[in-house]
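quick one before i forget lol
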Amino acid sequence: DVRAIDPKEDEHPKPGFLCKQFWKNHWQGVFSVVIPVVCLPIMLLIEGAEFRCLYLITICCLLWITECIPLYVTSLMPIFAIPMLGLMDSDKTCIQYFKDTLIMFAGGLIIALSVEYCNLHKRLALKTILVVGCSPRRLFLGVIMITTFISMWISNSATTAMMCPIIKAILEELEANNVLDIYMDESKEPAVDGKKHPTRAALAFYIGAAYSSTIGGCGTLIGTGTNMVFKGIYEGRFPNAKDKIDFPRFMMWSIPMVIVQAGLMFFFFNITHLGLFRPKSAVGQQVNAGAKVAPAVRAIVADKYVELGPMSAHEWQVAFWFTVMVAALFCRSPGVFTGWADLLNRVKIKTSPCVMFPVLALFTMPAFWTCFKHFKKKGPYPSEPIKSLLSWEFTHKNVPWGLVFLLGGGFALSTAAQDSGMSKMMGQALAFLTTWPRVGIQFMACVVAVFMTNFSANVPICNILIPVLNEVALVVKVHPIFLLFPAGIACSYAFHLPVGTPPNAIVSGYANIRIKYMAEAGILPTIFCIITVVLNSNTIHRLVYPEIDLPEDMI
């Protein structure tokens, strides 16, 4: 890079400097060429479709982890590589990118966007804070509660981005009333580019919101991409399995765990960052005295709520169609009673129709019924076209379409592994795990998932780990869901680094949080989330999925 060289210092830069600059600017291009070449012996030294598939999966895994090629572009590699390597034909490969699970996921994203589009999520957040209370601890409880709940239904990144300005307004009001200090003293932590670093009390609100959105995303099937990954891979590997990962059973499995984890998060941050059980500490004294200014903070939140105005027809309709989607998913084929899809048994109805019908309604129904006011002589005739509940421009701009490719790439690789015999080969290689206790395998899978997802995006890690666990389950003769569920959920638990998950990156940039403070704050949440997911897998799991041993039809 010529621009990086100062000719005044040296007209002929040293080779070491040039190599350093070349590597700094071109390492991604080098890796994208070197990785496929270095991995060639995997398929050249040993004949067989299973080794050609292993070669492709190894390349995709390394490219996903290093991100030398954009994640979503790497996810398109199976479209040409799988047919070229003779693993599956093009039609079967491309179908993996448009499966029922993916349509459900994309539809869920679109419906979540409609909630953002009409600001219904902001109204819900402000109302919850007003109801819970406005002392510092109650405010923090309100932040944890509403962030956890909203992130069950819309993306955790959108939830966190919405909460950040609300948290900032709350903290500024607390500081204005001498309740809490928001920023550290520059003598202890110098500002960077004029931006100060938040105090531990402020960190509790920002990081607590990020972690709560991650935990909340594990509460429903549409909460985060990893949930759809392990559902899709499981159903692709065992299409005739009696036990399904459907919407009601997923929530019955995960909601108790999410409630416990959110409660532990609130308790943990109160102890470590808000002075609970330390009444003589500086932050403890500030927080305990904060109840005196609760009316002032409540007034600020109430003003923001009043600015939204009364609940509009737009918001009411979005809430209605959102409820329709949830009800349709719950009552499709719940198992405990006859669902509407069971009654319409002429063809097999999966989850995508439950989501796409409300999506169609969002683009069809008018946001405001001004024409009826005119007919009733209560308003003028509309002078311009009435907008729909959701616009395509907003949808096209805000839906993370690349995430659909990412999930589809994982499904394609999983199907190729099964068809090529690589899955069977992997199962034979993991035969030593038969001597391990089942809970030990489950715990180790969760630890590996959490460790890997802290350094890379969680969906690729789930794409890598879940197919392996499918084969481990067959080897140790345990029901695959017993391993897949906790490990798939654990792929979301990235609490240490901004790169681990979008909510971490959002609060880190918004509040100027140093990595060391986020890494420190994530230690205990990581520990108790792993413990709770394993405990849940051996308690609640047995109520939702009573069969733990491997069924004969899966062997």
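fyi The radius of gyration is 26 Å.
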